[in-house]
Structure formats: C-alpha cells, structure tokens
C-alpha cells in the first residue's frame, strides 16, 4: 500500500505558495506583445514568462546549422558570467580586459605568420564576428585604394572587389553598405570555389582587393591562396598596380595552422594584407567574437582609427560599435 504523506504548510509555506508565480494574478492576465502594459508585473513573473517562452526555441546543442560553438567548459561559462557587466568601450576602467584582447590579437597574428618582430605589437582588433571584421578590412582596403587614386589624380568613385560566387553573405553586405561593386567569379560544375585564374583576369585598376576564402561556407573547401598570390603578383608587376589579397578565414583560420602547417595561405604570402577569423566557429567559443589582423600598420589607414578621450586617456579604436560586451 502506498501512503501519501501530507505536510502542514505553516505560515512561511503558505506565504510561498501564495507567491507562486503560476498562481499569481500577474500570469493570469495576458501580457501585451508589442506594447508596454498598463501595469507592472513582478520580476519573478517576468522571468518565468520569458523563460517559458524561450522553451519554444530549439536547443542550441542540437543546432548544427549555423556552424557556431554551442558548448564551452564550465570554467569558461564562469568567466563569461563574471565579466558580463563590463562595457568594453571603457578600456581605461578595464585595462586587463584590454590587455587580454591585445594578447589575442598578437597570438593570432603570430599564428598567421604576420611579420611581427620580437617585442613588437601586431595590428588588429577583436570584433563581434567575421562579418564586422570583414567590414573593417574592406573599409581599410577601400580607403587605401582611394588615397592612392587621389594622389595619382585618378577617379576614385568606382571601387570593386573580386570574390568567388561562393562568398558568405557578409561580403555582399559590405559591398552594398559601403558602395563597392562585387565582382563574383562564377562557379562551375564540380568546382565550387573561386578559380584563381579567373579571379585575376577580373582584376582591374579599380579593384580594392581580391577576397579568398579559407573554408568555403557551404563545403569547407580551402581556396588556393598561394596560386592566387602568384598570379596576382605577376599581374601587379605587368600593370604596375598593387592589388592586395584579403583572406576570409572565418572557419579555416583555427584549422589550417594546426592540421596543415605547411600550407601557405596566410601572411607568409606577400600580397595577403589582412585576415579575419571567427572565434565562434572552430575557435571553440560562443558567438560572437572574431578578429581582423592586418599585415602591418601601413595596411590600416590612420584616418580610420578614432581617438576617444572622454573616458580617460586616449583610446584608439576601429570598430563599428562603441559599447560592447567583453565576453
Ligand atoms: C567564410 C565565412 N565568412 C564570413 C562569415 C560570417 O561570419 P560571422 O558569423 O562570424 O559574422 C561566415 C559565416 O558562416 C563564413 O562562413
């Protein structure tokens, strides 16, 4: 026989039961969806409503579609929570966070074989992901090209960028937002990455850079950056242009150096002037973090760097947003 034991609630128990979120009047009335309600609701009811609604999202651990990391070690979760209330814009207040970001930039630059001497600092910045990194890299190429064209007294109103038709949508975004024509090399049956021969043929005097992908979004295939570098160097020599290369290593930047250390795709190739990488892909961290690294100082026009001093000392910044989290 099963005996059910019923406990007396007592005063405290009764108060707790009366305050139970699901029994409270807050949850008995619908909360307006698209406007502020007339009355406030308690914080525990608000939490419960949002928490329950989020149950309808799928579980990130089951989501393989967006290629981002969905699990980190518990110690990382702890560190993230400890830093979640810091605004990275205020580098004076958070000098250690700033130092950690600088270390990441330097470690990644050296991993990608940037020509950084001992004790020298690499040039780069942490971003929300590869899309922001690509916007910044693209802007640097555009400005550098415009400056050169101005100096030479040539028109500078029709910049273009050459990519494969397999590029991720962020390149189309960059082109549309920053008014640069996107010249895409068509893919062909059985060949689903940018053909370097065809890409170099499409380069003209208005090309601000050729963008190669290390880890094509749809197949993961690496483009042949070394061949692209050689063909472009020959064309640059012939034409006296100096069209550079950007490598979109969003997915492959944290794979190639470890699995294929001999493969030359990075700053070992002289025309590679900038590289982006996403931390949240094979860098094994949650979205969103990425980086863009420049080969050296000359590749990032000084006028794109803002110097902000109202929070304390001079802070050089080159990001699209001002405030952002530190995690
Ligand atoms: C090759 C490539 N570039 C850029 C991006 C955009 O990266 P993020 O999501 O970090 O902005 C992706 C994302 O899938 C990608 O695969």
From TrEMBL:
GO biological process: L-glutamate catabolic process
Molecular function terms from GO: glutamate decarboxylase activity; pyridoxal phosphate binding
Entry's Gene Ontology cellular component terms: cytosol
Names of required cofactors: pyridoxal 5'-phosphate
Keyword Lyase found: yes
EC number: 4.1.1.15
Modified residues (N6-(pyridoxal phosphate)lysine): 281
InterPro entries (alphabetical): Glutamate_decarboxylase, PyrdxlP-dep_de-COase, PyrdxlP-dep_Trfase, PyrdxlP-dep_Trfase_major
Keyword Lyase assigned: yes
Keyword vocabulary terms for this entry: Decarboxylase, Lyase, Pyridoxal phosphate
Superkingdom, taxonomy of origin: Eukaryota
Catalysed reactions, semicolon-separated: L-glutamate + H(+) = 4-aminobutanoate + CO2
NCBIfam families: Glu-decarb-GAD
Record family assignment: Belongs to the group II decarboxylase family.
Name of the protein in its database record: Glutamate decarboxylase
């Amino acid at each position: 026989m099963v005996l059910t034991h019923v406990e007396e609630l007592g005063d405290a128990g009764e108060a707790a039961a009366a305050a139970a979120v699901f029994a409270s009047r807050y949850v008995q009335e619908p909360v307006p969806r698209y406007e502020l309600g007339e009355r406030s609701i308690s914080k525990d009811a608000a939490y419960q409503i949002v928490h329950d609604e989020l149950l309808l999202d799928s579980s990130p651990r089951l989501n393989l579609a967006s290629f981002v990391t969905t699990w980190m070690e518990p110690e990382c979760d702890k560190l993230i929570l400890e830093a979640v209330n810091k605004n990275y814009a205020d580098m004076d207040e958070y000098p250690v966070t700033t130092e950690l970001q600088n270390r990441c930039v330097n470690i990644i630059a050296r991993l990608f074989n940037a020509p950084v001497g001992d004790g020298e600092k690499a040039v780069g910045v942490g971003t929300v992901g590869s899309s922001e990194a690509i916007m910044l890299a693209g802007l640097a190429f555009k400005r550098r090209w415009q400056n050169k064209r101005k100096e030479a007294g040539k028109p500078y109103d029709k910049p273009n960028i050459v990519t494969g038709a397999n590029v991720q949508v962020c390149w189309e975004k960059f082109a549309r937002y920053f008014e640069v024509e996107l010249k895409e090399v068509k893919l062909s049956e059985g060949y689903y990455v940018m053909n370097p021969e065809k890409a170099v043929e499409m380069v003209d005097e208005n090309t601000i850079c050729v963008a190669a992908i290390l880890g094509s979004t749809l197949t993961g295939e690496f483009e042949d950056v070394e061949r692209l570098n050689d063909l472009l160097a020959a064309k640059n020599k012939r034409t006296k242009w100096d069209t550079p290369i950007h490598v979109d290593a969003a997915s492959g930047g944290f794979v190639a150096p470890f699995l294929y250390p001999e493969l030359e795709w990075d700053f070992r190739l002289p025309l590679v002037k900038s590289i982006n990488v996403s931390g949240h892909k094979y860098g094994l961290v949650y979205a969103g973090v990425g980086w863009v690294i420049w080969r050296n100082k000359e590749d990032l026009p000084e006028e794109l760097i803002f110097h902000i001093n109202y929070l304390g000392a001079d802070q050089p910044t080159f990001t699209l947003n001002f405030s952002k989290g530190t995690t």
